């Protein structure tokens, strides 16, 4: 009698935990209505298999959509961007996220020259290395974004370069453009959903008059990445 009450409580607990009411009810009735020990063992094993399957399903990891599907979604999102928002002066970017890893590209340097005379000016020298506000290229990797890796730039100096040194009146400011990417969202049916998001990517540095509120005592070295 006590064994029957014990197993009845056991099946009631499974009923609550698994949510598989029909299967638990079937197995429970089969177990309690049969006096055959072998059938009871088979029934118990079936219940254990059901519980294990439910646990595996619960702890399964969320997958990522196929790259081709993400590429199609991204193309559609970029086609809908408004031309007015292409060029921005704001400084927000997803590079502030803790998930973003920034790496200086090979052959680039973040060292600020002392004056214009230290800049290369050969025929094949890129503009970013000849500018009065030189800048260098970096790779930004965010595993929660599609595309995960983007190339952007950083300013090498805070003050504009002059023949005699670094300017006290003019400063280097970043130039940004808006880019549409897909950012990883919530998991739905074991697949992460990706949402179109506009981020700002730095594409250049330009020399500009210092704002009145900016202090002339700013660090004249390279801007950290």
Briefly note the structural class of the backbone.
Answer: alpha+beta
Strand content: 25-35%
Summarize the helix and strand pattern as letters: HHHHEEHEEEEEE
Shape: elongated
Secondary structure tally, helices:
5
Helix fraction bin: 25-40%
Largest β-sheet summary: 5 strands, antiparallel
Low-confidence region ranges: 11-15, 17-21, 55-59, 87-92
Specify Rg, calculated over alpha carbons.
31 Å
Distance between the termini: 73 Å
Average predicted local confidence, pLDDT: 77
Topology, number of strands: 8
Gist of the model:
With 225 residues, the protein is of the alpha+beta class.
Describe the structure in your own words.
- There is one protein chain.
- This protein has 225 residues and is an alpha+beta fold.
- Helices cover 31% and strands 31% of the residues.
- It contains five helices and eight strands; from the N terminus they run H-H-H-H-E-E-H-E-E-E-E-E-E.
- Strands 1, 4, 6, 7 and 8 form a five-stranded antiparallel beta sheet that branches. A three-stranded antiparallel beta sheet has the order 2-3-5, with no helix packed on it.
- A hairpin with a 2-residue loop joins strand 6 and strand 7.
- Helix 1 packs antiparallel against helix 2 and helix 2 packs antiparallel against helix 3.
- The longest helix has 22 residues.
- It is elongated and about 95 Å long.
- About 9% of the residues have low confidence.
